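Weekly sync notes, structure subgroup
Attendees: PM, AL, DS (notes)

Item 1: joint prediction request from the bench team. They want all two components modeled as one assembly rather than separately. Inputs as received:
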Amino acid sequence: MAGKRRKFFGWGYEGEGLSPTEADALIKGVADRYGVTLERKAPPIEAEIDLPASKVELPAKLQGFCTTDKDDRLRHTYGQSFPDFIKMLDRDFTHAPDAVAWATSEEQVADVLEWASSKRVAVIPYGGASSVVGGVEPVVGSGYNGTLSLDLTGLDKIVEIDKTSRAARIQGGIRVPALEAGLKPHGLTLRHFPQSFEMATLGGMIATRSGGHFATLYTHIDDFVESTRTVTPRGVMESRRLPGSGAGPSPDRLMLGGEGTLGVITEAWMRLQDRPTFRGGTTALFKDVYAGAEAVRAISQAGLYPANVRLLDAAETQTNGFGDGRNAVLVLAFESADHPVDAWMARALEICRECGGQYDEDAAKDPDSHLSGAAGAWRTAFIRMPYNREHLTTVAAINDTFETAITWDRFREFHDNVKAATEQAIRDATGRDGIVTCRFTHTYPDGPAPYFSFHALGRPGAMLEQWQQIKNAASDALIKFGGTITHHHAVGRDHMPWYRQQMPALFQDAVQGAKARLDPAGILNPGVLVDPAPTA
Amino acid sequence: MAGKRRKFFGWGYEGEGLSPTEADALIKGVADRYGVTLERKAPPIEAEIDLPASKVELPAKLQGFCTTDKDDRLRHTYGQSFPDFIKMLDRDFTHAPDAVAWATSEEQVADVLEWASSKRVAVIPYGGASSVVGGVEPVVGSGYNGTLSLDLTGLDKIVEIDKTSRAARIQGGIRVPALEAGLKPHGLTLRHFPQSFEMATLGGMIATRSGGHFATLYTHIDDFVESTRTVTPRGVMESRRLPGSGAGPSPDRLMLGGEGTLGVITEAWMRLQDRPTFRGGTTALFKDVYAGAEAVRAISQAGLYPANVRLLDAAETQTNGFGDGRNAVLVLAFESADHPVDAWMARALEICRECGGQYDEDAAKDPDSHLSGAAGAWRTAFIRMPYNREHLTTVAAINDTFETAITWDRFREFHDNVKAATEQAIRDATGRDGIVTCRFTHTYPDGPAPYFSFHALGRPGAMLEQWQQIKNAASDALIKFGGTITHHHAVGRDHMPWYRQQMPALFQDAVQGAKARLDPAGILNPGVLVDPAPTA
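Output from the run, pasted for the record:
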């Protein structure tokens, strides 16, 4: 990664993303879709931003690795949410952190937490900053004397590999590409690739219960976590490395989903996979998403555990440019490092057939099927999607996603209601129709994880309000019709109103009780999961 | 179950268990093994026990379903641990509860908790009472004005079945046989059979993270839990029914392993299975447990997910009467409700062969293999094992088990050290050699869950001390060499000294913080997981 510099505005590294020609085509597509002429707003550059003076004074102990430099503060203000982009386009850096710590050791993390606790400075753990839910934005209420963004990407080592147990001890700040590069010579892989994998850090994925490569079984990162090591304001908490335990509630399961509010994950022993050598995959067409969902349900309940069983509704295939928009498409794949997957694939295809699915027999036998055809097209589209936003937002195109999970018995009603509520909100907010599409990212024997994308044409200057109106309606529908506010995007600050409705009040209270023991001053990522400590 | 009465001393229902002839043979086997003559101590009967007067006065609101009757109090004093048996044989009922509540509704549970909180009476949730770790014994320290055993077996209904999602809403006090009988007409099964399944209740299994039927993948009950409903002293806490969620730490995962200290699980939505119709299984012989373990490791890491892959060391096959004691035996089985398992079985057998295993090709193809041969013998032995203790303890035979989990890289050293420490402790405590055997109950890609059985000849009157000396040495070794104090037997009161060593101190503190919010008076199962509240 050396030498690469992250973009100030947009996804990925400088020089990466859409070519000017591709960007023009993307914008033209929007203009054509809505029949309008679009003007582009200039992306922000650092020099034009005025930043208020830092409110904190760094003690000598922290000065070696903490800064109040404008550039560092600017670059630690936002994640990758839609509102983050709009606020950046508005040159709004009101909530820039007062300081940034570039930690390269656990001791430095501890020193930051000790100082911040004593000074009542809010600390926001910062890894890949790929949060699409306001997880890293230093909005902490008025009860703090400042904010510090704790950049953990300097904790980037693979410390130890245990090939026998297929596990490795890995630092929390390592990004997925570096992690995979370090494991590859050993024939191993974490095989957990969220859409943000180029930037995502291990600790961030654990803290947010990220969703990865596998569509079944090992969907979240949760089951890959063998043990965790966390620095809290009260000291280090390290769980024992065990394949399984029944000794009380799991300490790792408290850290999984803690979103930086309970401690800073500096290390974890992760369960790894052998690199797959056997593959089978194809795509099957279904008349609609409901027919496809029946096939996905049957496959999910058959105990076959495909690596991929991702259903795209007809509109989704079209917006991503690899379907004709008339059929739902199921991307199906098996992989193994141990054995041919023919028997697995054959049975899954039989289920597709029983549910009215159509597919190409020959493609299903192609060992490179995951790289070719519609599956390959989807893979490429999936990886490139995050690069679109830095262009779309400049022309006031509202383009966002939300995701959830629901049991099978309620899927159809849930899907239709959530889609209708979002479509209606787009009309209400923007005065014209938008597009709402759905795919399944992960599936379980008892239900799918539907992932919705929406597109609307906003109005420059009003986009944040328009987006919020749509987001509210969609989120209200998710909760009203029985889903979760998030399957793998996490809670952050943006999902808090619905997290409060979804989670049992007594559980929220219990988490606060746990947090009070680990973070007595309440400095860790205030406003996420737990309301900020009141003004002192 | 109607009409059946549970034994006062021993496992199961009255009239069940070993016949007099079988019991005689069992005792003769012990006498022969140690070359001694054995005298049997008479089992306790209720009439001969003197019980101190109850320390609590039940309010009118509770009198309809709570009692201070001697018989109820006697029958709620103990679980099924080895010390429980010895204390019963000693007619020691010092810690009998002062009252017993027979709850048949959630309101009654809430009423008990409210009264107990106000009067500082400790409440011990009581389900199958199959705890082998002191989970239900009302030993709560001196800070309470009495103890109440909260019997939940009256909450025994299947409330609702969702066939589409394969899930059911089930009350916490239902026992496994009744649960399975209720699901069977729908073609469904929870398929979770701990050795205690005849008595075990759903809520108890969730509270203790029990280990069940499946040797891989769905080992603990954890992953079968879709949502939970828990009554705490501060009210009801119910999680949302979801196939998967990433909205903060999982509320269910806090209840899983709570062992009755955080609330009373009155209901859960459970993920179910279709009843299997395809099966394949056989046994393979290995020269020793290490060679067998290599095969288990390879199978566990191959992504095949056998229902059974239980390795027994040579001594274990002999003590259970279905091996010649010269080979380690691997009981291997696949099952499916969806597809033939030939491809799965073929690859697993290939791995066995590669690791030097020998097996009968024909037996592997027998669809009834799980009921016949060594696998069937093991199944029968497994179910009947709990019936032995009520006979063995009367002749001062010390006979207990402990279980753990360890990563593969440390298995050999761990196994040898734990076994040696236990053997040495038996010699130290009893003055003669005993037997220590090992099997795997569950396995994971990163390690097995070894289960040790030990046999020793104790001395009447000294058995409790002798057992404790052996238990301490074995438990110390588990912790010292990197294992867990329990993979699925739970913590209870007996494992607390090692739980305190194993669990990060800050996590124990966090759990106390959570508990303080749910159970402010500290009345729920004091002494388990969290130290009892200090004397008021």
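Discussion: Chain B touches chain A through 98 residues (CB under 8 Å).
Action: AL to compare against the crosslinking data before next sync.
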